[in-house]
Design goal:
Largest sheet: 7 strands, antiparallel
CATH class of the largest domain: Alpha Beta
Order of helices and strands: EHHHHEEEEHHEEEEEEHHHEH
Strand content: 15-25%
CATH superfamily of the largest domain: PPM-type phosphatase domain
């Protein structure tokens, strides 16, 4: 899931695209050439009566797995020439019947390998283009975290648990409204396409209703109605619900208002270290009809530089090999002790890497999302850039490296060196 950070909608570092491990890619590419070298060396060193050129017949199909049709054709022609050369080293072998059969078999297998390579290139090119379109659609649904929104600085990451997907059952969004900056983070019960459809319904309603409803509790009620009306699962799944936190930061960002609809509580990282932010839990979205009680809004004061950490249960319920959940509060308290007020990006990067280390080797993977939101310090506390104490350069460098790697992985050349980016497609 895409990890996102401010800096433009095109930047989506950390997306998990499955590709073969580098060692596998390297060996599969070099294997045809290794067979050629092996055949030549054995033929020269063993001085066998019969040439070992029959080994070269395996080169074209091996090359078809990693190379384009032109290169397969070149390798096939090279193998036939080598077979002729090996046979010519032995008097009378060049035109023998079994050698002629070997030449013909290599040529026929080479033609088949060229056709297979051509088809593989076509299929992979179509898949890459289709995936690029799918990624664009998914990223329109779940937009990258803006670096700044209103009086806040923000960072975060999102990882879908299903391999190859960019969007799962977790959701988040931030928007600046007439009532201040409003934020949602949530988790849909269930997985797969049904969960994504519910995510779409909730986020679509939030992006419209956040600008229209002055009361945060009324906004939560509106989101609940949108699930019942717009989610395809609502009519057939009586247990459909979405845990969510709704937050509102007024223009002066001196406080935060929170509505908790059954979601894990936020963590505040400030001068007193890391601590839970108290909320008044209510039933999740979709189950509100089971009670007549109204949502309670809790308000907490904020100081410049305070960081609020929001996350889904994919983070807090990550298990280690002993089955112990990841202790979000304890890990943040240990890392940012002593009243540190770190950059949101540093907090997000720490939790992501620390949770990965915690759950390394454990089975199972859930969707997970995290937002780190910080109040911008005033002019008296601003750093050299005037935007709040400066940034952690080490984290910036790490993020840039990750971005470069993510971009390279995402837009890797297609088979046979073909550039398959949609905007470059012929």
């Amino acid at each position: 899931m895409p990890q996102t950070r401010g800096g433009g909608a095109a930047r989506t570092p950390g997306i998990r695209h499955w590709r073969p491990p580098p060692a596998v890619r390297t060996w599969s590419w070099w294997l045809p050439l290794l067979v050629v070298v092996l055949a030549v060396l054995l033929d020269l060193s063993l001085h066998s009566r019969e040439p070992l050129s029959f080994l070269l017949i395996a080169v074209p199909p091996l090359a078809a797995a990693t190379r384009g049709p032109r290169r397969v054709a070149v390798l096939t022609a090279g193998c036939i020439l080598l077979e002729l050369g090996m046979a010519s080293r032995r008097p009378g072998h060049l035109g023998e019947q079994h050698h002629l059969a070997l030449y013909c078999a290599t040529a026929l297998i080479g033609v088949a390998a060229v056709l297979l390579a051509r088809q593989r290139v076509r299929v992979q090119t179509r898949l890459i283009r289709a995936r690029s379109v799918a990624e664009a659609v998914q990223l329109t649904l779940l937009r990258p975290v803006p670096e700044r929104v209103g009086p806040l600085r923000a960072a975060g990451f999102y990882e879908a648990g299903e391999r190859g997907a960019l969007v799962g059952g977790d959701l988040y969004d931030l928007c600046e409204t007439p009532f201040g900056v409003r934020v949602i983070i949530g988790d849909v019960r269930g997985k797969g396409l049904d969960a994504v459809q519910t995510v779409s319904a909730v986020l679509g309603s939030f992006r419209v209703s956040a600008h229209e409803w002055a009361d945060l509790g009324s906004l939560a009620q509106r989101l609940e109605l949108s699930i019942a009306r717009n989610s395809p699962r609502a009519a057939c799944d009586a247990e459909l619900f979405v845990t969510a936190l709704l937050l509102e930061f007024p223009a002066d960002a001196g406080e935060v208002r929170i509505v908790d609809r059954g979601h894990p509580p936020p963590v505040l990282v400030g001068k007193d270290g890391a601590q839970w932010l108290r909320t008044s839990p209510h039933l999740p979205l979709g189950l509100g009809a089971l009670t007549s009680a109204a949502c309670e809004i809790t308000t907490h004061p904020l100081a410049p530089g305070d960081v609020i950490v929001l996350y889904t249960d994919g983070v807090s319920e990550a298990r280690n090999t002993a089955g112990v959940f990841y202790p979000v509060l304890e890990q943040l308290a240990a890392r940012f002790a002593g009243g540190q007020r770190p950059e949101p990006g540093l907090v997000a990067a720490f939790v992501r890497s620390d949770a990965d280390c915690w759950s390394a080797g454990a089975e199972g993977e859930d969707d997970r999302a995290l937002l780190a939101l910080a109040v911008r310090p005033g002019p008296e506390g601003a750093g050299p850039g005037g935007d709040g104490g400066g940034r952690d350069e080490r984290w910036e460098d790490d993020w840039e490296d990750e971005w470069d790697e993510g971009w390279a992985e995402r837009w890797a050349d297609g088979p046979d060196g073909t550039d398959v980016r949609p905007d470059r497609a012929g």
